Amino acid sequence: MRIDKYLWAIRMFKTRSIATEACKKGHIKINNVNAKPSKEVYIGEKLIVRKNQINYQLEVLDVPPNRVGAKLVDLYRKDTTPKEAFDHLDLLKYSKDYYRQKGAGRPSKKDRRDLDEYQENNNFETEN
Q1: Which domain holds residue 75?
Q2: Is the same domain home to 75 and 94?
Q3: CA distance 63 to 99
Q4: Partner of 20 for a Cys bridge, out of 37, 81, 85, 89, CB 3.0 to 4.6 A?
């Protein structure tokens, strides 16, 4: 089965065209080698799928005949993604919360309150 079709069938991507685009952009690797959309996938191969700033590490357990339901996905792939990858995503979310772009002007009243609250919380944590 083609890698783009496999990723669509195990519900990693909503559509096959999105899976194809991910392959073309180099976000899909089979055994640490960039995969073209037409590359065949076989049982036992290791996949690395970059999606939403997370590198998912998957192992192919079986090849589905067609798109499977969400409850049956684990029959066809084994997810070996380390927990640190998801923790890194949480850190990115927190860092973006208080980031202001240069030239965005003066902070609003709400921005100032949020900044003050953030600084108070960080000072309190470092003192104890």
Answers
A1: 1-81
A2: no
A3: 44
A4: 37
Q: Is the dihedral of CA 56, 60, 65, 68 positive or negative?
A: negative
Q: What's the domain count of the chain?
A: 2
For residue 66, CA distances in Å to 44, 56, 70, 76, 92 come to 19, 22, 13, 11, 35
Written as six digits, the tokens of 126 are 């470092």
Range 84-123 burial, b when 16+ CB lie within 10 A, else e: eeeeeeeeeeeeeeeeeeeeeeeeeeeeeeeeeeeeeeee
What is the Cα–Cα distance from 45 to 31, expressed in whole angstroms? 6
Instruction: Output the CA angle 52-50-10, nearest 5 degrees.
Output: 95
Measure the CA–CA gap between 68 and 81, rounded to whole angstroms: 21
